[in-house]
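User: Good morning. I'm curious how flavin-adenine dinucleotide would be positioned relative to this chain. Could you predict the structure with it bound?
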Amino acid sequence: MNDLIVIGGGFAGVTTARESALRGRSVLLLEARDRLGGRTWRADWNGSPVEYGGAWVHWHQPHTFSEITRAGLDVVVGDSASVAGWYVGEERRSGSVEQRDAIVRRGWDRFVDGVREALPVPHDPLRAIDKLARFDRLTIAERLDELKLSDEEGAVLTAELESLAHAPLQDAGAVSVLRWHALSGYSLELTQFTGGRVTIVGGTAALLDGVASGAPFERWLNAPVAAVTRRGDRVEVATRDGAELSARAAVVAVPLNALGAIEFTPPLSEDKQRAIALGQASRGIKIFIRARGEPTAHNSIRPGHPFGYLDTDWVNGDGSQQLIGFGADAARCDPDDLTAVQRELEAILPGYEVLDATSHDWLTDELSRGTWAIHRPGWYEHHHAAMQPAEGRVRLAGSDIADGWAGFIDGAIESGLRAGAWAAALA
Ligand SMILES: Cc1cc2nc3c(=O)[nH]c(=O)nc-3n(C[C@H](O)[C@H](O)[C@H](O)COP(=O)(O)OP(=O)(O)OC[C@H]3O[C@@H](n4cnc5c(N)ncnc54)[C@H](O)[C@@H]3O)c2cc1C
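Assistant: Good morning! Here's the predicted structure, ligand included:
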């Protein structure tokens, strides 16, 4: 019998396993997919690596950066676009990124007004919950309605928020973005920077390898877990294909929106069940487009567009370029329908010819059912605390329930550090 079974091999599960193994515990990690990494996935597309899931990191993300140092990895800081585009109704305007940011800032400053008091210690989101509750009750759409913005301010802020929230603004809780701002030193500039400028040399796969090789633990791929049963001083785990395993403790590090597929006996607390039923709201797309046209690095935004935040990743020698787009609803864009992608590209960045496109649909993927955690209204007031305590020898982990950078690789590592230490102390 192992000391610990970890269910889920994303950054949270792998960090949990490493931490526990480092303390001398025997660990078995069960992962449903044929690979580790979960919502980070670096794979080849047209001969170049792309990150279908999480990609960007920042030195303001303490757990991630500590692991980058530990693994001896380096980072690359991407260039800013040379032309910014934005839409007000049907009219396309363009200028420098700085000019557009000046417009964004006018709305942003009002959007985040009060967040310093509501999140005075961003890695402890409940520290001032009495003040945070006012924001926690609002969707982003409701928060926007409280602000008096001009048409242009409203259009650019809405487009920015749709890309950050990766969800329809009437579903996403306002705190999901306010938190990001607080964690980024209460700065718009850093919020944009933490979300999209710094990548790891070798990608997320290199970082994951660094964590996973930090201590020996056994791992099974293609091992989806169906049930977790607490029995006295051990935990029994059944996989969907009938394997029955037991350990002194179990950490369940699967996405919030995938937790409902695992049967817990006895059932998890009612508070946890309510949080799982609520889930998180992200349902967006991250699409890669290869296009031919002017060899200029663009950043274009348009509210309500299927990929309304579109950035040049790089420009090739032949003038073609790779673009990365983010949109609030993956169901609104099929990357395989190049005619539709061309039509939509024309509506945000006119004059470019689509050569190819790709994306992973994290929304219909039953092992994620969403992208980065974007909590719904009421999460912090009613649900966040309930997800933290262990129930007997079973504990949940994952970026979606992290204290700090929930919804980021950093939150996954933070949560894994806590869960691994908990399990090692218990076993
Ligand atoms: C499109 C996209 C872009 C993103 N961009 C960024 C970014 O730029 N920077 C950043 O920091 N973060 C980003 N994120 C978020 C980040 O990738 C995640 O928050 C983080 O990787 C989640 O880690 P995790 O271990 O908590 O969950 P996951 O990575 O989802 O790992 C959970 C694992 O559990 C497995 N699993 C599920 N059910 C079962 C089961 N029944 N049995 C066994 N295994 C199961 C899954 O297959 C998965 O491997 C992005 C995410 C997406 C999707």
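The longest strand covers residues 244-252. Residues 7-13, 30-33, 38-40, 53-56, 224-225, 253-255, 258, 261-262, 286, 362, 367-368, 371-372, 398-399, 407-410, 412 surround flavin-adenine dinucleotide (CB under 6 Å).
Let me know if you'd like a different ligand tried.
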